[in-house]
Amino acid sequence: MDVTVTAGPSFAMGTVALPPGGSVRVEAGAMAMTRGDVRMETSTRGGFMKGLRRSLGGESFFVNDFHSDTGGQVGVAAVLPGDMTKVALDGATALLVQSGSWTASDPAIDVDSKWGGGKSFFSGEGLILLRCSGRGDLLMSSYGAIVATELAPGETLTLDTGHVVAFDETVQYAVRKAGSWKSTLLGGEGLVTDFQGPGRVWLQTRSTADLVGWIRRVNPQSSGS
Q: Which NCBIfam families does this one have (predicted)?
């Protein structure tokens, strides 16, 4: 996938160049522009159940495939301001992506969902992680800039749960309190995720949960009708 990312890391947009006969799969609503000979096809890509699982993971029930017979461009952008990065999948290791970060990918990449169980439930980040597998390129977006880290076997990294973007399926993870209950309630830190290598981990420098909390503080809404 030939992608040019501009205006990052604050307001990134990814422009995908489609060669003659080329295609790209895009999250519904992420298309910002098209140029040249480009047509769009909307579907669940995998049937009703796969679309349903993907929607439970925070993505749209539908996805859009953009095709070009003679060549064109598709520009994609995320909802919140931030960065984008292209990740190459080799077909051997799948990538687990947090809800809302998958933006576009080669049609050969399978975008499904993975049940996170209690670990994801307690993280407050949703019950489902998107599982991206196959051989090809994938475009991820974030709130804030994206920082990539490579973990050696046995090496650990701890992230606030709201700053997780994605990680290789080879990476083990567990969610826990940042400290004691007193620290969790009074210290401003909630739950964190411990990652153990080998594999890659991507984080975002801002947290959507913190943004929502800040909006609620500065613009409280009355509970009455």
A: TIGR00266 family protein
Determine the Cα–Cα distance for residues 119 and 96; give it in Å rounded to an integer.
14
Which helix (H) or strand (E) is 55 found in, with range?
helix 48-56
Please give the tally of structural domains in the chain: 1
CA distance 153 to 23: 37
Task: Classify 11 as helix, strand or coil.
Answer: coil
Residue 223 resides in a domain: no
Mean pLDDT by 10 residues, the chain (225 residues): 94 97 94 96 60 47 88 96 96 90 94 60 55 95 96 96 93 80 54 92 91 86 56
Please report the sign of the dihedral spanned by the C-alpha atoms of residue 59, residue 205, residue 136, residue 104.
positive
225 domain residue, yes or no: no
This prediction's pTM: 0.82
Per-residue CA distances from 104 to 59, 116, 121, 134, 197 (Å):
12, 22, 26, 14, 26
> Which CATH number goes with the domain that contains 8?
3.60.160.10
